[in-house]
Amino acid sequence: MIHSDPIRDRHRVSWRNGVLRHDLRTVATETAVALSYNGSTHAVMMATPLDLTDFAIGFSLNEGLIADMGDIRSIELQQDAKGIDLQIWLVEERSELVRSRRRAMVGPAGCGLCGVESLAAAAPTLPNVCVDGRVAAEDLMTAMDELGSLQILNQRTRAVHAAAWWQPIGGLRAIREDVGRHNALDKLAGAFVRQKNTTAFGVLLLTSRISVELVQKAAMMGAPVIAAVSAPTSLAIEAAQEAGITMVATARADGFDVFCNPQRIVF
């Protein structure tokens, strides 16, 4: 049976400062997680076996396979020696949509568009995020600084990404971690909709670079502001501009850069 714990201890031989040691190192668990709809596998992702119900919901929403939680009848987790199968049962109308779009893909932890079948599918028209609200630059810096202390898995392993939802009033509302940055955001999307945060102004905090797939997922969530510790890609900037998302990147101790739609930031 595959381990479902998000972390595991592994033996290692460590050579530091000329000293040889035999000890244990805590590492992040990475396992194959299949997302199956009405009995048929749609995608297989390498992921951390944690918050998998959120993952199932968020992936389904961000992929456009469901419109809301009402499209899901049930979610069942099946586990065997090869991995974990998330059996997602949809209402019949959505089941027909999934059948028409079915694709088989194996996504490594860093992959976000594996299995996309056309150029048009890789660059879809994004919904416009027209959520009103503003955030002070100093508050945004504080939020990014606090994020590290809340990454429980990463503190133990130094090997996972995080996606978090923060609000100027209320602070950090949810955080999800995974070996894959896309998976972490899908998990957060699932938590986001389950906590009914879909109408509140807030900031999506990311511990990775900003690629176009993350902007696409943020647009599906309706996140008006993205803030990340690393840099964006050119296509990510273009997608955020198109969707009306404020993009904050390279957020470090000395400040950050805003690449598009800066009107939501109060300097």
TrEMBL record:
InterPro entries: Cytidine_deaminase-like, FdhD. Keywords: Cytoplasm, Molybdenum cofactor biosynthesis. Transmembrane segments: none annotated. The active site is at C111. Signal peptide: none annotated. It is found in: Cytoplasm. Gene3D superfamilies: 3.10.20.10, Cytidine Deaminase, domain 2. Required for formate dehydrogenase (FDH) activity. Acts as a sulfur carrier protein that transfers sulfur from IscS to the molybdenum cofactor prior to its insertion into FDH. Belongs to the FdhD family. This is Sulfur carrier protein FdhD.
